[in-house]
Specification:
This protein is mainly alpha-helical. Helices cover 80% and strands 0% of the residues. The model has no long low-confidence stretch (mean pLDDT 88).
């Protein structure tokens, strides 16, 4: 538990809030309602689905890079791996919970309808929280590979 508190101290509470918000948004996005009784498909999202997919993946990427970079700067090796593990464990848990909620007849259509707004809002908040560390990590990576 002390290691997890150390990760939260290194990354900051805004990162924790962004991670929690991403957890909720990923649950909503994963809760796609099943086919209806007559076999009709839930409405597709088209281009919005592509944008939401990018926003969801970029959110996880930014959270992972910020967590890793926050520990990298102070040379805390165990916290680097723990930060990555926390981000990916949250993503996997949210996907499983969302898939379980997809079977709930009253809940899944509401979650799936709210998912675009939640995903884009979480993406914007995560970008605000992590822009400096993600920018620094990408700058370092680019400079090392020139």
């Amino acid at each position: 538990m002390d290691s997890l508190n150390a990760v939260f101290d290194l990354t900051g509470m805004l990162w924790v809030y962004a991670l929690a918000a991403a957890f909720v948004a990923m649950i909503a996005e994963s809760a796609k309602p099943p086919r209806g009784e007559e076999g009709e498909e839930p409405p597709t999202r088209g281009f919005l689905g592509i944008v939401l997919g990018f926003a969801g993946m970029a959110t996880i990427f930014m959270l992972a890079v910020h967590g890793y970079w926050s520990a990298f700067v102070v040379q805390a090796m165990p916290q680097q791996l723990l930060a990555l593990g926390v981000v990916f464990a949250v993503a996997i848990a949210a996907s499983i919970i969302g898939l379980a909620l997809a079977r709930a007849p009253g809940v899944s259509p509401v979650l799936y309808a709210v998912a675009p707004f939640a995903t884009l809002a979480v993406f914007a908040f995560t970008a605000y929280v992590t822009w400096e560390s993600v920018g620094a990590a990408l700058d370092l990576w680019v400079l090392q590979n020139l």
